[in-house]
Write a structure and sequence with these properties.
Blueprint lengths: L1 H7 L8 H28 L4 H22 L10 E4 L2 E4 L2 H23 L4 H26 L8 H15 L16 H26 L9 H26 L10 H10 L5 H22 L6 H26 L8 H30 L10 H5 L9
Antiparallel strand pairs: 1-2
Length: 386
């Protein structure tokens, strides 16, 4: 463990456990900051709800697109090209762009699930559990299709069970009426759109990852860039259509439509600060996507690491809010019980990672760090050269 920690403090190789830990820690800390800022703006600065979400999202989209444009990530690297409408382009664009459109669906539906007639607690349970379940289903589908050649370890399956337990503990506190949204057409449309878009996106992540031939380019930065640019264009187009379709005179002041347009027409005093607060929110997206697409891992494993990290960050953010913002409540008993289940899930995830890293190192799919425990505990034969 000490060697692993030392290794992750410096530059790491693609696909190693140390790189995985670096991404997880980055995701964790940025998620904590994002969670804290949302509460700080709402409870301390008085800018919350839809107005904060709008400007926070603008900031997040700005940082994502600035990074991919300034650093040139949009120059997607591929060894397989095709002609589309007379234009030569990487064949991967045929599914990366749809993945970006799915992202454009996920972003607003996530917000809408909190403002429509659905319990916030139930919305959080559905969103967190769905990613874990979808990831496991995607593995089963791609194994059946012959796309995924790896098997899902039993430790990963146990991790899924404990992760779902951590999420579902709050079901004990569900009140009568919390599930009445199933009779609401608008709420169900939003929910189904969210689940469908996430399912397609996770499938595409793993299709790209699992169809790379030996020696083929695996350009996660380029994938992220193309996906983000296409999602931004889709959101801007949909946002413009939605904006001009709203009549503030007839829309109810409590409706999402009214609050969305009003926040742009009558910008709040802290709109610039709201955009700046979106920077860590945007940076979270980098780590989230790179975890989902982490080299050599199953969708089950990647989905677990992603969701378990965000769940732990959520608890940490709640503690931070309690300590720094007057009048806020500490995590509840069920939150600590959920954290205990998360730690058990992480134990099994760690066991699965050790086995997978050894498997990948033996197959020479990754290059372990010299001081890594994998190097010491997993005998690796030198790669045969033709």
């Amino acid at each position: 463990m000490i060697n692993t920690i030392k290794s992750m403090l410096g530059k790491t190789h693609e696909g190693t456990t140390e790189r995985l830990l670096q991404l997880s820690l980055g995701y964790f800390f940025l998620y904590v900051i994002t969670g804290y800022l949302a509460k700080h703006f709402d409870k301390v600065l008085g800018m919350g709800g839809t107005a904060y979400t709008v400007y926070n999202t603008i900031g997040g989209m700005l940082i994502c697109n600035l990074v991919v444009l300034i650093w040139g990530w949009y120059r997607f690297k591929s060894s397989d090209y095709t002609n589309f409408l007379g234009i030569s382009m990487p064949r991967e664009f045929l599914y990366i762009i749809p993945s970006g459109i799915c992202t454009a669906v996920i972003i607003p539906t996530t917000t809408l699930m909190y403002v429509l007639p659905i319990s916030v607690m139930v919305a959080m349970i559905i969103m967190r559990a769905s990613v874990i379940i979808i990831s496991r289903i995607v593995d089963s589908i791609q194994i059946h299709q012959g796309i995924l050649k790896k098997r899902v370890y039993w430790e990963e399956n146990v991790g899924v069970l404990f992760a779902l337990l951590a999420v579902s503990i709050k079901f004990y506190y569900v009140r009568p009426g919390d599930f009445d949204f199933i009779h609401n057409a608008a709420a169900m449309t939003i929910l189904i759109s969210y689940l469908t878009a996430y399912s397609i996106r996770i499938y595409i992540f793993n299709y790209y990852k699992n169809t790379r031939k030996p020696g083929a380019i695996y350009d996660t930065k380029g994938f992220f860039a193309v996906e983000q640019i296409s999602s931004t264009l889709a959101i801007l187009l949909a946002g413009a259509i939605f904006f001009y379709s709203i009549d503030l005179a007839t829309a109810g002041e409590k409706s999402f439509a009214f609050q969305f347009k009003d926040s742009l027409v009558n910008a709040p005093a802290l709109w610039k600060e709201g955009i700046l607060a979106g920077l860590p929110f945007g940076l979270v997206a980098f780590f989230s996507v790179f975890l989902f697409m982490f080299k050599g891992r199953t969708a089950t494993f990647a989905g677990l690491v992603n969701r378990l990290t965000s769940l732990m960050a959520g608890t940490a953010a709640t503690v931070l809010v309690y300590l720094l913002i007057k009048g806020q409540k500490p995590p509840k008993g069920e939150d600590w019980a959920g954290l205990a289940a998360i730690l058990v899930a992480l134990y099994f995830v760690g066991k699965a990672e050790k086995k997978r890293a050894c498997e990948l190192a033996k197959a020479h799919e990754i290059e372990p760090e010299k001081s890594s425990e994998i190097t010491a505990d997993c005998p690796i034969e030198p790669e045969k050269k033709d």
